[in-house]
Structure formats: structure tokens, C-alpha cells
Amino acid sequence: MNRDRPETVLITGASSGIGLELARCFAADGCRLILLARSTAALEALADSLRQQHAVEVIVLTFDLAQPASPQAIFTELQTRNLTVDVLVNNAGFGANAPFTEIPVARELEMVQVNISALMELTALFLPGMIARNRGGIFNVGSVAGFQPGPGMAVYFASKAFVLSFTEALAEELRGTNLTISVLCPGPTESNFGAVARGARQRPNQVKKMTSKMVAESGHRGYRRGKIIVITGLGNRMMVFALRWLPRWLPRRIVGFYNRVQ
Ligand SMILES: NC(=O)c1ccc[n+]([C@@H]2O[C@H](COP(=O)([O-])OP(=O)(O)OC[C@H]3O[C@@H](n4cnc5c(N)ncnc54)[C@H](OP(=O)(O)O)[C@@H]3O)[C@@H](O)[C@H]2O)c1
What we know:
Elements: E1 8-12, H1 17-28, E2 32-37, H2 40-54, E3 58-62, H3 70-80, E4 87-90, H4 105-133, E5 137-141, H5 154-173, E6 180-185, E7 189-190, H6 193-198, E8 210-211, H7 212-224, E9 229-231, H8 234-243, H9 249-258
Parallel strand pairs: 1-2, 1-4, 2-3, 4-5, 5-6, 6-9, 7-8
The structure holds NADP nicotinamide-adenine-dinucleotide phosphate (NAP).
């Protein structure tokens, strides 16, 4: 990044978890931030702390990405304010943890809208400007879930397979430009994700989780180094590597076991 010309970074889902920690990382770089989510109070509190800590400009936008009109409205709002986005961080997302037929289809459609459609449309709106300026990039938050099917979270895992495939394809299309196109693939991470996906229900099979801070710092480092796929944590990297050699039935059996809720 050119420190004389700080980037403007739009981060979706910046009100908690990984998105909030990514905002801290880009603020430490000296970037101007545009923080977006539905929880205005949480965004304002983060904005205040980043302004104080890093003396950066922070703009707060309240939008619901489950609304199909939101991506275009966000783009128009930023154009009206004369704000150019250099880096788009598509982080907002959520899961639903139960057998497919037990999850209301309206909730699954909302997930597809937030995790896939909004991510794709925001990219379509902001990427042409980045290409014209030959500066900045797209930083999508996928998951190790994108590498395998996920019984018990079928639509969520499939949505992250889209994010992984879409990002890799874009990175290849834009090879040779100055743009960085990355997908961050965390494993289980401490955040509000589990509460949103499961409510009060629990998983009997628990695994050790990374903190959102560790995940964001690893992702941010990978993005700055121009890595296309950033898998956080050695255990997750080993798992993704092993998936290449395992018969397809085995990981889906293991994931189905792990995704059971009570
Ligand atoms: N935690 C994990 O184990 C894990 C693992 C792999 C990948 N991920 C991915 O990491 C990303 C961040 O999740 P997280 O773990 O940090 O969970 P989180 O703490 O629940 O954060 C999710 C963020 O997305 C925003 N969001 C959700 N629905 C939205 C909507 N309709 N419109 C606008 N913003 C919305 C939330 O803000 P508001 O509620 O304020 O709108 C929040 O800022 C997601 O894409 C998730 O799939 C998480």
C-alpha cells in the first residue's frame, strides 16, 4: 500500500467478529474506512475507537444486505458522497445450523442473498473502478467450509463454495494487474457466528476455535502479501490439504457428525 495515498476500504459486517478485527487491521495501515452492517451503535462505537487510536477517517453506513436493493443503494450513496472504494472487504455473512428441511426456506434465501448475491453484486459494482485505476482489490471472507459439503449446514457450506470458486476465478482473470483478489478461509472462530447459526442449541462435538483477532490478522497479512487463498491456522491448512486425497464420502460423514446440534 502507498502510505502517501491511503486506501479507502469498505468492510461489510464490521459490527462484530472477524469484520470488526479486520477494520482494526486496515485502520492500523492508515486506511480510510467505510464500516457497514445493520447495528449502527456497534459501528459508531468502533468508528470512535479507530479514530482515536489511529487518527483515520471512518464513515459508518447502516444497510441490511438481505435486502436485494442494498448493494446498488450502497454504491449510489458512496458515489453521491464522492467516495471512491479502493478495497472491498466482503465479510458480512451468517449460517444456519440444522438439517436442511428444518430451516425455513426464507432464512436460507436470506443467507444466499447476504453470503452470495450481495457479495457478487458489490464486487460487480466496485471492481470496474478498481480495474480502471489499477489499484486496490477485493477481499472476500469465505471459509474452510467452502472446500467440502456440510450436512447440518448444507446451504451455508455451499454458499462458501461459491465464494471460494468465484474469488479464485476473478483472481485468475485479473492476473497481471496491480489488483489483489483474495479469499480468507477461516475454520471455527470465536464470534457471534455460532449464536446466530444455532441460537440456544449446542453442538455436542466442540473443537478449539481461533479468535477473530487471530483470523483477521492472518487474513490481512495474506491479503497484503497478495495471496489468493488464505487459510487460517495450521490445523485448517492440513485439513484442506488432506481433503485432496480422502474419498469424498469421508469428509462429508465427519462434517455431518461435527455439525449435529442438540
Ligand atoms: N465464526 C466462524 O466460525 C467463521 C468461520 C469461517 C468463516 N466465517 C465467516 O466470517 C464472516 C464474519 O462472521 P463472524 O464469524 O465474524 O460472525 P459475526 O460476529 O456474527 O459477524 C457477522 C457480521 O455480518 C454482519 N451481517 C450479518 N447479516 C447482515 C445483513 N443482513 N446485513 C448486513 N450485515 C450483516 C453482522 O452485522 P449486523 O448483525 O450488525 O448486521 C456482523 O457484523 C462471515 O462471512 C462468516 O461466514 C466465520
